[in-house]
Amino acid sequence: MFYVFCQVFNDPIHGTVELHPLLIKIIDTPQFQRLRNIKQLGGVYFVYPGASHNRFEHSIGVAHLAGQLVEALRTRQPELDIDDRDVLCVKIAGLCHDLGHGPFSNLYDNMFIPKVQPENEWKHEEASVEMFDHLVESNNLELEMEDHGLILPEDMDFIKAMIEGLKDRKPVQVSPACVNLWSEIGRTEDKFFLFEIVANKTNGIDVDKFDYFARDCYHLGMKNNFDHLRFIQFARVIKVEKDGLNHICSRDKEVGNLYHMFYTRNCLHRRAYQHRVNKIIEHMIAEAFLEADGHIKIKGSRGKEFTLSTAKDDMEAYTKLTGNVFILFLYDETKKLAEAKEILKRIISRDHYRFLGETKPRQVLTREKINGWKEELDQARQDDHEFEPVLNPFTREAAEACRILSEAISGTVPEFPESESQPEKHTEERKRRWKEELAAAVPEGDDGVVTLTAEDFVVLVATFDYGMKDKDPIKNVYFYNKRNPDKAFNIPEHQVSKLLPACFSEQLIRVYSKKTDKQSVETSRKHLVKWCEDKGLPNPQGVF
To answer: Rounded CA gap, 146 and 144, in Å?
Structure first.
């Protein structure tokens, strides 16, 4: 056993951060240094002047927290047999999990790529895995990795699986047929909990969120109510009877802290990530990218040229694609980028498209929601005790009414959808149709001075949730208590608090006007009000 000299960084969020020499080798590559020029929060910097941080420092923070969590588990539970290879691989996965982000981070894969390639469901996690392969190969790091005790290609597969996260848990079912699937992800089923550290697909509680909550709140000037160090302190690995796998569990008394985590996520989306001005600025940047796509040539492997949208398919070209393209387009003097340049000039001169108002679509009733109501009714109908105002506030008559309602609901449950399906590939088509309807929604008494077309409107849909669409993420979290620390269990929502959200997902339809003169904006707002009336939607907020 020899001592590994680590390099020390001073981080504004985590303080002194020590990084293994292999991580330093990875950081000192063009593929990782590229992250210095990828804004962590995309267009939010145009709204919050403090949000200038990049993916570079976030990735270092995630590597640090990944090491803290896995080391804490190794110290407290030596029976887990976590070795130095496991620890180093987890740290590398944390460091490299965002290598695949494009210019302005999520703007690239959520707003730009869907516009230019509507049928392509590409996500940056795929590029992160490809970029990691490219980073190791092009910098000849295989020998360096082996010198530090890693076994290739097994540990490479393990790191890449942690970066992507285990989306499909079928391979983790314990059966002879799945032995090959385990070998493809570099570890056996007893180490499943390691896949929940960097990208947790089970319930979304991972060190990636721990860092960006703390870091984003710091740079946005907001309070972070979630204490990730407390989570690490109480984290424990327990084998869960339901699937036979080892999961990271938390103390039962920490359930409130975890709801704070998801509430913090929701607040960040409402106040920053999906701020109404930020979203229209990001939409305009995506428009500029669309105009420039095809005019920009980026040289990739074997001398082949790629565009803004296709560079992601070649890691040599993608390494050269960063947020610096914004400045490149803004100061370009050629005619081919004139339209993109004009859009970006409107952004920096604060002449962005004007917000007209927002409204909520009707809520979709799902089987889960209906069954939730039924469970509450069933609890009330089981009334064999005398009426007592606090402990048992249901009279026998009220319990009987609950029984009747519960039985009535039982017969209708199959008629409701299982979940709120929101297929993304139809989103752009729906928006086009809504814009046409907005232009046609001429209010009564309109003087006809301003004529509007569908192209004068922009419609954006903002979705707010707790990280798992319309589901309560805590339902997928396992807990333990002090008396029995080796028994994992779920905590039902009604046992936590009656003050929790009744709904875990909602959408807002936001409408903007490309015309910014006062008369056009006022007329556009009247069209929006008329459209909402015609659609039976609530009156739009922010109109008057």
So the answer is: 5
Tokens of 492: 């039902």
| Residue whose pair of structure tokens reads 């009747």 in the numeric block | 404
The rounded distance, in Å, linking the Cα atoms of 33 and 42 is: 18
Contact between 328 and 320 under an 8 Å Cβ cutoff? The reply is no
pLDDT at site 1: 44
Three-class SS state of 480: strand
Q: Round to whole Å and give the CA distance between 38 and 33.
A: 10
CA dist 481 and 488 (Å) reads 8
CA 534, 435, 286, 160 torsion-angle sign: positive
Q: Any idea which residue has 């807990």 for tokens?
A: 479
pLDDT tens digits, one per residue of 508-525: 999 999 999 999 999 999
Whole-model pTM? 0.89
The Cα–Cα gap between 404 and 538 comes to 32
Which residue stretches of the chain have pLDDT < 50?
1, 171-177, 421-426
| Nearest-angstrom CA–CA distance, 497 and 432 | 42
Q: What's the CA gap between 329 and 331, in Å, rounded?
A: 6
Distance, CA of 300 to CA of 310 (rounded, Å):
10
d(CA 192, CA 182): 10
Contact 206, 65 (CB under 8 A): no
What is the pLDDT, as a whole number, of residue 423? 39
- Residues 514-521: contacts with CB under 8 Å, at least 24 apart: 514/353, 514/455, 514/456, 514/457, 514/458, 515/354, 515/452, 515/456, 516/351, 516/353, 516/354, 519/449, 519/450, 520/450, 520/452, 520/456, 521/354, 521/356
Nearest by Cα to 60 from 82, 92, 102: 92
Task: Give the three-class secondary structure for 505.
Answer: strand
For position 408, what pLDDT does the model report? 74
Exactly one of 124, 247, 283, 527 is catalytic; which is it? Answer: 124
d(CA 68, CA 232): 8
Look at strands 354-359 and 305-306 and give their pairing: unpaired
Does residue 124 have an active-site annotation?
yes
